[in-house]
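pasting for the record
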Amino acid sequence: MLKFLALPAMLSVGLLTSVAGFAQSNHSVSATQDPALVALEVENFLHNQASSYPGSTTITVETPRIEQQPACDHLEASLPSGQRLRSRMTVEVRCMAPQTWKSYAQANISIQGFYYVTNRNIQRGDALSLSDLTGREGDLLRLPNNVVSDPSQAIGYIATQRIPAGGTVKANALRDPDSIQRGQSVRTVARGVGFVANGQGQALQSGSPGNQIQVKSSSGHILSGTVINANTVQVNM
C-alpha cells in the first residue's frame, strides 16, 4: 500500500521541479532588455520635444544594439544640455531602475512646416509688413535657428541687420518696435504711495517690454527699471 502512495508523491515533486525549472528559464529569457522598448522610449521623447514646432513631425529610430542589459522598469531619454533637435541625432537612454545602465539610439527627424523669407532687400531699421514676406514650406530642422514660422512674429518688427531678398527671416534679426535701444533717450517714471515722479535719462542697455535695464538719469544716477514701451522705463522703487 505504501508503494502505491509513494508514486503520486514522486510525480508531484517531479512536476514542481519541472515548473520551477521552466519559470527560472523563462525568467532568464525575459530578464534582458528589449531593444524595441528603448527605441519606443526615444521616439516618444522626440515627439514630445518636437511638439513646440509648428509642423508635421516624422521620426525614425534605429533599434539600438543592447548587449544583455537587464530589463528596465524606468527608462529616461535625454539630449545633451543645450542641444536642439537636428535632422539626425543621437539620443541617450538611461535605465533608472532596478539596475542603472545607459545606451544610445540614432534617430532621423523631419518637421515639415511653413517659414518666411523676404521678397525685397530689408535694410537695418526697416519695419517689416506683410507685403515684405513670402511663405514657404520645408523641413524646419534644416533651417537656421530662430526661423520665423508665424508672420505675427515679424509684422511690425524692426530689422536689426540687413536681410537680402529671399533671405530667411530669423527672430534674432528683428526687434520689438516697443523695445528700447542702448544709448537712446528715455522717459523715467517712478511710482510710490501717493506720488508719481517723471524724469529723463539715457538707456545703458537694450531691452524689450518687460525686460529690466539700467538707465542713467539726467542727474547722473544709475537707475534700474522695467521697459514699458519704446520711450518709457518704470524705475524700481
